[in-house]
Amino acid sequence: MAYKFLTRPLTVRNTTFPNRVVFPPVQTNYASETGEATDRLIRFHETIARNNVGLSIVGATGISPHSRLGPQSLCLYDDRHIAPARRLFDAIRKAGSVPAVQLNHGGRVMSPELAGGTVVGPSALASPAAGIVPHALSLEEVEQIIGQFVHAAEAAKTAGAAMVEFHGAHSFLLNQFMSPASNTRNDKYGGSTENRARIVREILERTRPRVGNDFVLGLRMSVDEYVDGGLTVEESRKMVNLFIESGLDIIHVSGGGIDTGPRMIQEAAEGNIVKLAGEIKKFVNIPVIAVGGILRLEQAESALKDGLADMVALARALIADPKLVTKSLDGKPETVLECTGCLQCFMEGERPGMTCSVNENL
Ligand SMILES: Cc1cc2nc3c(=O)[nH]c(=O)nc-3n(C[C@H](O)[C@H](O)[C@H](O)COP(=O)(O)O)c2cc1C
Ligand code: SF4
Hints:
Blueprint: E1 10-12, E2 15-17, E3 21-23, H1 39-49, E4 55-62, H2 82-94, E5 98-104, E6 120-121, E7 135-136, H3 139-158, E8 163-168, H4 173-178, H5 193-211, E9 216-224, H6 233-245, E10 250-255, H7 263-269, H8 272-281, E11 288-291, H9 297-305, E12 311-313, H10 316-320, H11 324-329
Parallel strand pairs: 3-4, 3-12, 4-5, 5-8, 6-7, 8-9, 9-10, 10-11, 11-12
Antiparallel strand pairs: 1-2
The structure holds flavin mononucleotide and iron/sulfur cluster.
Residues 24-27, 59-60, 102, 167, 169-170, 220, 254, 268, 291-294, 314-317, 345-346, 354 line the site of flavin mononucleotide (FMN).
Protein backbone atom coordinates (compact mmCIF):
# COMPACT_ATOMS: atom_id res chain seq x y z
CA MET A 1 0.00 0.00 0.00
CA ALA A 2 1.24 3.54 -0.79
CA TYR A 3 0.91 5.87 2.16
CA LYS A 4 0.48 9.03 0.10
CA PHE A 5 -1.12 11.13 2.83
CA LEU A 6 0.98 9.92 5.77
CA THR A 7 4.33 10.46 4.08
CA ARG A 8 3.74 14.11 3.15
CA PRO A 9 5.73 16.53 5.35
CA LEU A 10 3.87 19.24 7.28
CA THR A 11 5.31 22.62 8.25
CA VAL A 12 4.02 24.53 11.28
CA ARG A 13 5.75 27.86 11.90
CA ASN A 14 9.41 27.00 11.09
CA THR A 15 9.21 23.35 12.06
CA THR A 16 8.78 20.67 9.40
CA PHE A 17 7.41 17.33 10.53
CA PRO A 18 8.91 14.82 8.06
CA ASN A 19 5.67 12.84 7.97
CA ARG A 20 2.22 12.77 9.60
CA VAL A 21 2.80 10.00 12.17
CA VAL A 22 2.85 11.03 15.83
CA PHE A 23 3.96 9.18 18.93
CA PRO A 24 1.58 10.78 21.45
CA PRO A 25 2.38 11.45 25.12
CA VAL A 26 2.85 8.29 27.15
CA GLN A 27 3.60 8.37 30.86
CA THR A 28 6.34 5.77 31.16
CA ASN A 29 7.69 6.42 34.66
CA TYR A 30 11.16 5.92 33.17
CA ALA A 31 12.58 9.20 34.55
CA SER A 32 14.56 9.39 37.79
CA GLU A 33 12.78 9.86 41.12
CA THR A 34 13.74 13.52 40.96
CA GLY A 35 12.36 13.99 37.43
CA GLU A 36 15.46 13.83 35.21
CA ALA A 37 15.48 11.99 31.86
CA THR A 38 17.32 8.66 32.13
CA ASP A 39 19.06 6.38 29.62
CA ARG A 40 15.97 4.14 29.71
CA LEU A 41 13.64 7.01 28.75
CA ILE A 42 16.04 8.17 26.02
CA ARG A 43 16.41 4.65 24.58
CA PHE A 44 12.61 4.21 24.55
CA HIS A 45 11.98 7.43 22.60
CA GLU A 46 14.98 7.05 20.31
CA THR A 47 13.81 3.62 19.15
CA ILE A 48 10.39 4.97 18.20
CA ALA A 49 11.77 8.20 16.68
CA ARG A 50 14.19 6.25 14.49
CA ASN A 51 11.33 4.38 12.86
CA ASN A 52 9.69 7.03 10.69
CA VAL A 53 7.67 8.87 13.32
CA GLY A 54 7.40 12.55 12.35
CA LEU A 55 6.58 13.96 15.79
CA SER A 56 7.49 12.48 19.18
CA ILE A 57 5.69 14.02 22.17
CA VAL A 58 7.25 13.01 25.50
CA GLY A 59 4.57 12.06 28.09
CA ALA A 60 3.00 14.19 30.82
CA THR A 61 5.85 16.18 32.40
CA GLY A 62 5.66 17.93 35.77
CA ILE A 63 5.74 21.74 35.82
CA SER A 64 6.35 22.03 39.58
CA PRO A 65 7.38 19.77 42.49
CA HIS A 66 3.76 18.82 43.23
CA SER A 67 2.21 18.46 39.77
CA ARG A 68 3.59 15.16 38.44
CA LEU A 69 1.45 12.08 37.96
CA GLY A 70 3.90 9.31 38.79
CA PRO A 71 6.84 8.75 41.14
CA GLN A 72 9.19 8.67 38.13
CA SER A 73 7.59 11.21 35.80
CA LEU A 74 9.81 13.53 33.81
CA CYS A 75 9.88 17.10 35.20
CA LEU A 76 10.90 20.47 33.78
CA TYR A 77 10.64 22.92 36.65
CA ASP A 78 14.24 23.11 37.87
CA ASP A 79 17.52 23.97 36.11
CA ARG A 80 18.82 20.50 36.97
CA HIS A 81 16.20 18.96 34.61
CA ILE A 82 17.46 20.81 31.54
CA ALA A 83 20.72 18.99 30.66
CA PRO A 84 19.18 15.47 30.82
CA ALA A 85 16.13 16.71 28.86
CA ARG A 86 18.53 18.07 26.23
CA ARG A 87 20.00 14.57 25.81
CA LEU A 88 16.47 13.24 25.32
CA PHE A 89 15.37 15.86 22.77
CA ASP A 90 18.72 15.67 20.90
CA ALA A 91 18.38 11.90 20.62
CA ILE A 92 14.85 12.23 19.20
CA ARG A 93 15.98 14.88 16.70
CA LYS A 94 19.06 12.92 15.58
CA ALA A 95 16.82 9.89 15.07
CA GLY A 96 14.81 11.90 12.53
CA SER A 97 11.74 12.96 14.51
CA VAL A 98 10.65 16.36 15.87
CA PRO A 99 11.04 16.48 19.68
CA ALA A 100 8.12 17.80 21.75
CA VAL A 101 6.98 17.46 25.34
CA GLN A 102 3.61 17.50 27.08
CA LEU A 103 3.38 19.76 30.13
CA ASN A 104 0.93 18.85 32.88
CA HIS A 105 -0.44 19.51 36.33
CA GLY A 106 -2.60 16.66 37.65
CA GLY A 107 -4.91 18.80 39.81
CA ARG A 108 -7.72 17.09 41.70
CA VAL A 109 -7.07 13.55 40.44
CA MET A 110 -3.56 13.40 41.94
CA SER A 111 -2.55 11.25 44.87
CA PRO A 112 -2.04 13.31 48.06
CA GLU A 113 1.56 12.02 48.28
CA LEU A 114 2.54 13.37 44.85
CA ALA A 115 0.49 16.54 45.44
CA GLY A 116 2.63 17.35 48.48
CA GLY A 117 -0.23 16.74 50.95
CA THR A 118 -2.78 19.13 49.42
CA VAL A 119 -4.70 18.11 46.33
CA VAL A 120 -5.82 21.18 44.36
CA GLY A 121 -8.46 21.95 41.74
CA PRO A 122 -10.52 24.78 40.30
CA SER A 123 -13.34 24.15 42.80
CA ALA A 124 -13.85 22.13 45.99
CA LEU A 125 -15.53 19.30 44.06
CA ALA A 126 -14.21 15.74 44.25
CA SER A 127 -13.41 13.87 41.05
CA PRO A 128 -15.75 10.86 40.72
CA ALA A 129 -12.67 8.72 40.12
CA ALA A 130 -10.31 10.03 42.84
CA GLY A 131 -12.92 10.96 45.46
CA ILE A 132 -10.82 13.63 47.22
CA VAL A 133 -12.30 17.11 47.74
CA PRO A 134 -9.53 19.42 46.48
CA HIS A 135 -8.49 22.78 47.84
CA ALA A 136 -10.03 25.36 45.46
CA LEU A 137 -7.13 27.37 44.06
CA SER A 138 -7.06 31.08 44.97
CA LEU A 139 -6.48 33.67 42.25
CA GLU A 140 -2.87 34.03 43.43
CA GLU A 141 -2.38 30.27 43.21
CA VAL A 142 -3.86 30.15 39.68
CA GLU A 143 -1.46 32.91 38.71
CA GLN A 144 1.44 30.89 40.13
CA ILE A 145 0.43 27.77 38.16
CA ILE A 146 0.15 29.78 34.92
CA GLY A 147 3.71 31.01 35.58
CA GLN A 148 4.88 27.42 36.14
CA PHE A 149 3.43 26.27 32.79
CA VAL A 150 5.14 29.21 31.03
CA HIS A 151 8.44 28.55 32.82
CA ALA A 152 8.34 24.84 31.92
CA ALA A 153 7.67 25.70 28.25
CA GLU A 154 10.68 28.00 28.28
CA ALA A 155 12.76 25.22 29.86
CA ALA A 156 11.59 22.82 27.13
CA LYS A 157 12.75 25.26 24.46
CA THR A 158 16.09 25.79 26.24
CA ALA A 159 16.54 22.01 26.33
CA GLY A 160 15.99 21.76 22.56
CA ALA A 161 12.32 20.81 22.13
CA ALA A 162 10.63 22.28 19.04
CA MET A 163 7.16 22.18 20.57
CA VAL A 164 5.25 21.87 23.82
CA GLU A 165 1.81 20.43 24.22
CA PHE A 166 -0.18 21.76 27.17
CA HIS A 167 -2.20 18.91 28.66
CA GLY A 168 -5.82 20.00 28.64
CA ALA A 169 -7.24 16.47 28.40
CA HIS A 170 -7.99 13.35 30.44
CA SER A 171 -9.41 15.01 33.62
CA PHE A 172 -6.17 16.78 34.63
CA LEU A 173 -5.96 20.36 35.93
CA LEU A 174 -6.38 22.36 32.68
CA ASN A 175 -9.22 20.04 31.66
CA GLN A 176 -10.75 20.55 35.14
CA PHE A 177 -10.73 24.33 34.57
CA MET A 178 -12.30 24.01 31.11
CA SER A 179 -15.03 21.63 32.25
CA PRO A 180 -18.37 22.78 33.67
CA ALA A 181 -18.44 19.47 35.59
CA SER A 182 -15.39 20.34 37.69
CA ASN A 183 -15.27 24.16 37.57
CA THR A 184 -18.00 26.06 39.45
CA ARG A 185 -15.90 29.16 40.19
CA ASN A 186 -17.58 32.53 40.09
CA ASP A 187 -14.47 34.59 39.32
CA LYS A 188 -12.83 35.27 35.95
CA TYR A 189 -11.75 31.58 35.63
CA GLY A 190 -15.26 30.09 35.95
CA GLY A 191 -18.78 30.36 34.55
CA SER A 192 -18.94 31.22 30.84
CA THR A 193 -17.08 29.35 28.11
CA GLU A 194 -14.71 32.33 27.83
CA ASN A 195 -13.95 32.26 31.55
CA ARG A 196 -13.35 28.51 31.72
CA ALA A 197 -11.02 28.83 28.70
CA ARG A 198 -9.13 31.73 30.28
CA ILE A 199 -6.37 29.79 32.08
CA VAL A 200 -5.28 28.10 28.84
CA ARG A 201 -5.48 31.37 26.90
CA GLU A 202 -3.29 33.13 29.46
CA ILE A 203 -0.74 30.30 29.36
CA LEU A 204 -0.58 30.50 25.54
CA GLU A 205 -0.37 34.28 25.46
CA ARG A 206 2.32 34.47 28.13
CA THR A 207 4.36 31.62 26.66
CA ARG A 208 4.74 33.03 23.14
CA PRO A 209 7.01 35.99 24.03
CA ARG A 210 9.22 33.68 26.11
CA VAL A 211 9.78 31.06 23.37
CA GLY A 212 9.88 33.16 20.19
CA ASN A 213 7.98 32.91 16.93
CA ASP A 214 9.40 29.61 15.65
CA PHE A 215 8.36 27.49 18.63
CA VAL A 216 5.18 25.41 18.19
CA LEU A 217 2.45 25.62 20.85
CA GLY A 218 0.06 22.69 21.07
CA LEU A 219 -2.83 21.66 23.28
CA ARG A 220 -4.34 18.27 23.97
CA MET A 221 -8.01 18.46 24.79
CA SER A 222 -10.76 15.99 25.67
CA VAL A 223 -13.31 17.60 23.39
CA ASP A 224 -16.01 15.24 24.63
CA GLU A 225 -15.52 14.25 28.24
CA TYR A 226 -18.16 11.51 28.20
CA VAL A 227 -19.36 12.64 31.65
CA ASP A 228 -22.68 14.21 32.67
CA GLY A 229 -22.44 18.00 32.56
CA GLY A 230 -18.94 17.87 31.02
CA LEU A 231 -17.48 19.38 27.86
CA THR A 232 -19.24 18.60 24.61
CA VAL A 233 -17.90 18.86 21.07
CA GLU A 234 -20.03 21.95 20.49
CA GLU A 235 -18.52 23.89 23.38
CA SER A 236 -15.04 22.54 22.67
CA ARG A 237 -15.15 23.94 19.12
CA LYS A 238 -15.77 27.41 20.55
CA MET A 239 -12.94 26.97 23.03
CA VAL A 240 -10.46 25.79 20.40
CA ASN A 241 -11.21 28.87 18.33
CA LEU A 242 -10.56 31.06 21.40
CA PHE A 243 -7.24 29.24 21.87
CA ILE A 244 -6.34 29.89 18.22
CA GLU A 245 -6.93 33.61 18.85
CA SER A 246 -4.42 33.27 21.70
CA GLY A 247 -1.76 31.69 19.48
CA LEU A 248 -2.46 27.94 19.50
CA ASP A 249 -0.67 26.25 16.56
CA ILE A 250 -1.87 22.64 16.71
CA ILE A 251 -4.72 20.80 18.47
CA HIS A 252 -4.50 17.18 19.59
CA VAL A 253 -8.01 15.83 19.94
CA SER A 254 -8.76 13.28 22.64
CA GLY A 255 -11.85 12.27 24.60
CA GLY A 256 -12.73 11.19 28.13
CA GLY A 257 -10.25 10.78 30.94
CA ILE A 258 -9.69 9.51 34.47
CA ASP A 259 -13.25 10.48 35.40
CA THR A 260 -14.68 8.49 32.48
CA GLY A 261 -13.32 5.16 33.69
CA PRO A 262 -13.01 2.28 31.18
CA ARG A 263 -15.29 4.02 28.68
CA MET A 264 -12.33 6.02 27.36
CA ILE A 265 -10.54 2.87 26.19
CA GLN A 266 -13.77 1.51 24.74
CA GLU A 267 -14.39 4.73 22.77
CA ALA A 268 -10.79 4.61 21.50
CA ALA A 269 -11.13 0.95 20.47
CA GLU A 270 -14.31 1.73 18.52
CA GLY A 271 -12.57 4.54 16.62
CA ASN A 272 -14.85 7.19 18.14
CA ILE A 273 -12.03 9.43 19.37
CA VAL A 274 -10.62 9.62 15.83
CA LYS A 275 -14.10 10.69 14.68
CA LEU A 276 -14.06 13.46 17.32
CA ALA A 277 -10.95 14.87 15.60
CA GLY A 278 -12.97 15.10 12.38
CA GLU A 279 -15.71 16.99 14.26
CA ILE A 280 -13.14 19.57 15.39
CA LYS A 281 -11.29 19.75 12.06
CA LYS A 282 -14.44 20.96 10.27
CA PHE A 283 -14.43 24.10 12.42
CA VAL A 284 -10.76 25.07 12.87
CA ASN A 285 -7.98 26.32 10.60
CA ILE A 286 -4.95 24.82 12.40
CA PRO A 287 -3.56 21.27 12.09
CA VAL A 288 -5.48 18.60 14.01
CA ILE A 289 -3.96 15.42 15.45
CA ALA A 290 -6.24 12.37 15.76
CA VAL A 291 -5.62 9.44 18.10
CA GLY A 292 -7.26 6.37 19.53
CA GLY A 293 -7.39 2.68 18.71
CA ILE A 294 -5.25 2.79 15.56
CA LEU A 295 -3.39 -0.50 15.25
CA ARG A 296 -2.36 -0.55 11.60
CA LEU A 297 -0.79 2.13 9.42
CA GLU A 298 -3.51 1.76 6.79
CA GLN A 299 -6.08 2.95 9.37
CA ALA A 300 -3.96 6.07 9.94
CA GLU A 301 -3.75 6.66 6.18
CA SER A 302 -7.55 6.35 5.90
CA ALA A 303 -8.12 8.90 8.68
CA LEU A 304 -6.04 11.43 6.72
CA LYS A 305 -7.60 10.50 3.39
CA ASP A 306 -11.08 10.92 4.87
CA GLY A 307 -10.14 14.41 6.05
CA LEU A 308 -10.53 13.66 9.77
CA ALA A 309 -7.12 15.03 10.73
CA ASP A 310 -3.75 16.36 9.54
CA MET A 311 -1.61 14.01 11.66
CA VAL A 312 -2.35 10.67 13.31
CA ALA A 313 -1.02 9.38 16.62
CA LEU A 314 -0.46 5.76 17.65
CA ALA A 315 0.34 5.11 21.31
CA ARG A 316 -0.10 1.46 22.25
CA ALA A 317 0.57 0.22 18.71
CA LEU A 318 4.05 1.83 18.83
CA ILE A 319 4.70 0.71 22.41
CA ALA A 320 4.04 -2.87 21.28
CA ASP A 321 6.10 -2.52 18.10
CA PRO A 322 8.24 0.63 17.74
CA LYS A 323 9.09 -0.47 14.17
CA LEU A 324 5.44 -0.56 13.04
CA VAL A 325 5.76 2.40 10.65
CA THR A 326 9.05 1.24 9.12
CA LYS A 327 7.77 -2.30 8.62
CA SER A 328 4.55 -1.03 7.02
CA LEU A 329 6.33 1.43 4.72
CA ASP A 330 8.68 -1.40 3.69
CA GLY A 331 5.66 -3.45 2.61
CA LYS A 332 5.93 -5.94 5.49
CA PRO A 333 2.91 -5.11 7.67
CA GLU A 334 2.46 -8.81 8.44
CA THR A 335 5.68 -8.69 10.51
CA VAL A 336 4.27 -6.06 12.91
CA LEU A 337 3.88 -7.28 16.50
CA GLU A 338 0.34 -6.14 17.16
CA CYS A 339 -0.86 -4.62 20.46
CA THR A 340 -3.33 -7.04 22.04
CA GLY A 341 -5.19 -4.41 24.08
CA CYS A 342 -4.29 -6.19 27.34
CA LEU A 343 -3.60 -2.84 29.14
CA GLN A 344 -0.58 -4.13 31.05
CA CYS A 345 1.14 -0.86 30.06
CA PHE A 346 -1.33 1.02 32.29
CA MET A 347 -0.60 -1.15 35.35
CA GLU A 348 2.27 -0.73 37.75
CA GLY A 349 4.48 -3.80 37.46
CA GLU A 350 7.01 -5.20 39.90
CA ARG A 351 9.74 -3.25 38.17
CA PRO A 352 9.23 0.53 38.21
CA GLY A 353 8.22 1.86 34.81
CA MET A 354 5.89 0.83 32.01
CA THR A 355 6.02 -2.70 30.64
CA CYS A 356 4.27 -4.33 27.66
CA SER A 357 3.22 -7.95 27.22
CA VAL A 358 4.22 -7.84 23.54
CA ASN A 359 7.43 -5.78 23.62
CA GLU A 360 10.04 -7.56 25.73
CA ASN A 361 12.64 -4.86 25.15
CA LEU A 362 11.11 -2.22 27.45
C1 LIG B 1 0.80 3.66 29.38
C2 LIG B 1 0.10 4.86 28.84
C3 LIG B 1 0.42 6.12 29.33
C4 LIG B 1 -0.22 7.27 28.82
N1 LIG B 1 0.18 8.51 29.26
C5 LIG B 1 -0.37 9.62 28.71
C6 LIG B 1 0.12 10.92 29.02
O1 LIG B 1 1.12 11.09 29.75
N2 LIG B 1 -0.52 11.99 28.48
C7 LIG B 1 -1.58 11.85 27.63
O2 LIG B 1 -2.12 12.85 27.16
N3 LIG B 1 -2.02 10.64 27.27
C8 LIG B 1 -1.43 9.53 27.77
N4 LIG B 1 -1.83 8.30 27.33
C9 LIG B 1 -2.88 8.21 26.30
C10 LIG B 1 -2.27 8.04 24.90
O3 LIG B 1 -1.52 9.17 24.50
C11 LIG B 1 -3.37 7.80 23.86
O4 LIG B 1 -4.19 8.94 23.76
C12 LIG B 1 -4.25 6.60 24.20
O5 LIG B 1 -3.45 5.49 24.59
C13 LIG B 1 -5.14 6.19 23.02
O6 LIG B 1 -4.33 5.92 21.88
P1 LIG B 1 -3.97 4.41 21.42
O7 LIG B 1 -5.28 3.71 21.23
O8 LIG B 1 -3.18 4.61 20.15
O9 LIG B 1 -3.16 3.78 22.52
C14 LIG B 1 -1.21 7.14 27.82
C15 LIG B 1 -1.52 5.87 27.33
C16 LIG B 1 -0.86 4.74 27.79
C17 LIG B 1 -1.18 3.41 27.18
S1 SF4 C 1 0.80 -3.73 27.30
FE1 SF4 C 1 -0.90 -4.62 26.13
S2 SF4 C 1 -2.23 -2.83 25.66
FE2 SF4 C 1 -0.24 -2.01 26.31
S3 SF4 C 1 0.86 -1.71 24.39
FE3 SF4 C 1 1.45 -3.72 25.15
S4 SF4 C 1 0.03 -5.16 24.17
FE4 SF4 C 1 -0.84 -3.10 23.93
